Amino acid sequence: MTVIFAPLFPHAEQLDVGVTYINQHVMALDTSIKDAAYSYELAIEYLSENRFNANNFKSIRSELNLLFNWAWEVKRISIADIDRVQLRKFVDFCNQPPIELITHASYPFFVEDKQDGTLAPNPKWRPFVLRSEGRYVRKTSTLKAQLSLLSGFFLFLSDMEYVDKNPAAVLLRRLNVNNTHVVESSDGEKALSDVQWKRVWQHVNDLANTQPEKHQRTRLLFALLYLLYPRVSEIAARPGYTPMMSSFIRHRSGHWVFKIPRSKGGKSRLIPCPDELMQCLKAYRQYLGLADFPAPDEQVPLFVRHRAGTHGRETGILNAQLGIEAIRDIVRMIFDNVADSHNGTVQEAHELSELRDFSVHSLRHTGITTSIAAGTPLQVVMKNAGHADLSTLSVYISTDIQQQAEATVPRAL
């Protein structure tokens, strides 16, 4: 059977808009391969994070292009189904690719129509290049570089809770590679301790009260991440989705809910909003000069930018939703500020310094852990978190027994 691969990822400057034939191809695959469109969105997000380093971007794009083509066209499986065994098969495939995927010169991914500027796959392009006569052979260094780049991608997917393991890191370790750039996600401590969270929330409130023009937004962000524990990709702008204030909906029951239209597994969900979160939303909206609560058709971004965008489709636009990197930067700044504070005992100072090792995902983990500890039924936590089954919650239940035992009911900010 002849294997045909196609360029699936656009140039850096086109990530925000995509390429028509690629978008159509991915949406067609989404009907037969689980999460094809969602995993592609995640890959675009990861590439966007690396778009400003040209060499890294091109290397990562090439490896993701190989991986996605192999998974979809050769194995007909989802990216989420790639474990250590499957990735080993992928490596074997790359070591001995079909002859129809090999060329003797490098060609661009795309050709441009000179009349309308649209892009099409370059018919001369092939993913593997053999520059001399003879059999295609990959050096060990090439294999190690490939696994290192893919390890970074699987780590990102783990942070997004799309996969549980990092198969590329496992294969790298078996190759005895001493690569300091490869970081595996662990099943160790991910949630903030009670002391860490209280100091973080206190700092956020202090900033919101003293610098409301900047940090009313920060308070709503942290309250949302802690109380509803969404994935960061679910509250940030991404290709095809921009969260609005109208994501907050008054349900017919009278309760306010937060709507996430599509996420992992292509599922949507409604998350009930505690009163504490609605008070933070009300304070932020009042500062923006808006009504206390959003109207159903309101088109105001959930987190309004303080400065206009500098690249992509939103260059020069101020009234736009924050992206993943901007949200991560805000959380990182707060964690670093609290970690740098020297108030309290030596033991507390050490505990706060550990915040430098936490990420925005840690707030989701903290929210789930404390919600379980506060007595929220596991079935409810599972639905709120967007997990497919209760077994996924096991890591949260066993994270910190002392923290769970000491948690109070009801749970409050």
TrEMBL record:
A Pfam family matched in the record: Phage_integrase
InterPro entries registered for this protein in UniProt: DNA_brk_join_enz, Integrase-like_cat_sf, Integrase_catalytic, Integrase_recombinase_N, Tyrosine_recombinase_XerCD
Keyword Lipid metabolism: no
Record keywords, A-Z: DNA integration, DNA recombination, DNA-binding
Residue intervals of the Tyr recombinase domain: 187-409
PANTHER family cross-referenced by the UniProt entry: PHAGE INTEGRASE-RELATED (PTHR30349), TYROSINE RECOMBINASE XERC (PTHR30349:SF77)
Name of this chain's protein: Phage integrase
Organism name: Paraglaciecola agarilytica NO2
Lineage, broadest ranks: Bacteria, Pseudomonadati, Pseudomonadota, Gammaproteobacteria, Alteromonadales
